[in-house]
Amino acid sequence: MLKRALVCGAGGFIGSHMVKRLKEEGFWVKGVDLKHPEYSPSLADEFVIGDLRDPSVVANVIDDHLDELYQFAADMGGAGYIFTGDNDANVMHNSALINLNIAHEAVSKNVKKLFYSSSACIYPKRNQTDPDNPNCVEKSAYPAAPDSEYGWEKLFSERLYFSFMRNYGLNVKVARYHNIFGPEGTFTGGKEKAPAAICRKVCEANSNSSIEIWGDGKQTRSFLYIDECIEATLRLVRSDFSGPVNIGSEEMISINSLAQMIIDISGKDIKIKNISGPVGVRGRRSNNELYGEKIGWKVAEPLSLGIQKTYQWIKSRVT
Q: Is residue 142 flagged as an active site residue?
């Protein structure tokens, strides 16, 4: 009998890639989202267009006897969406409603395993002021002080799912994602994240011109390629560890250095112009010690390889 999986947020970047991987593994897959994937047809056996803020939609899409449920659905975006403050109410209201509905229905339908994608944005701002030495070890999440309402909602939802595990026996797996990127991710429109945004800017720029980078460019991050993210997620879900655990790369880079990497890949003569804009914390890097201890897998590819693949994909879309 085929194993059955539900991917919530299957029209989004990570969700659509997860659908592909589950199909490769022989699952029967249902996807649900407000929209179909933007850049390629979904491979899901069934795709439901529905609003997961509506309890009746959630009740309809969560079947009895699901083997795995992946919850990626959220109101989210890059720094231009998360850190301006203009979208805080929607971010908290929409995402919290989705998770409240899914947790309740997963228990009533006896879902065997539920994965929730949390975020590195839950980590306290006080531990991420030094761009060279951020502290994102899992236990540092408390006392809680995320740098955005997006981070607060993610932390609330982590606690929500674990409370359903304690009280109702829901088999929960939680990962804190650190800046996932790759082909078929949003690269325009205001919700794109740094790698995709910079790739687009470089693709659109002429030689002997410049691209704008928010802040002084010395803020640091680690970025994880989508294929590595999917692999690490599946290994967590099929393990006996619940988390929360970081899923990310330990290869840290400044945003200006990331921009220069992309410029070098393009072969263009482009300057970097730093301007004022929302930047989030000064430094953030995944700490993978707990993941290595509990699951025993490491990121295989260097950042430059994933960036090259992503740049070529975005270049094919904008030129």
A: no
